Amino acid sequence: MPTKEFAVLKEMGFDNLEEIKSFSTRNENDVDVLKIYLRRHQGEWVAKSKKFKFKRTHTSVRTEGSLVPYRATTKSSEFFLQAIAELEQLDKHEPQVNKVLSADDKKKVLLSEIEHLEKVMNGKMADIRRQIAEL
Length: 135
Hints:
By secondary structure, the chain is of the alpha+beta class. It starts with 6 loop residues before the first helix and ends with a helix. The chain has three helices and five strands, in the order H-E-E-E-E-E-H-H.
């Protein structure tokens, strides 16, 4: 695999592309979050991952046949989209045998998703409580 092909991943700090195991994306308000999971080396107990946040760009789109002439929208940054494209391309190079996550890996992913959801919910509830207190 030529590294020239994966310039964005290299710029993100991934010199050894064999280290990348999988990735996931999600949206948080006006931010795209890319989480890249790395392979665990022998003797390591905890799986490693790196998280990157990309701010979405705000634009206005002209609407036809509506009372409002423009509608506010957001779109993903070009760098984020290029990183996803490279990760998907890298994913195609990998043998299908390694794609299946073990039960422990699935548990870790699900637990991290629960932790993230708890953080988001706690933040939202604190914000609502603050707004109520201001009334």
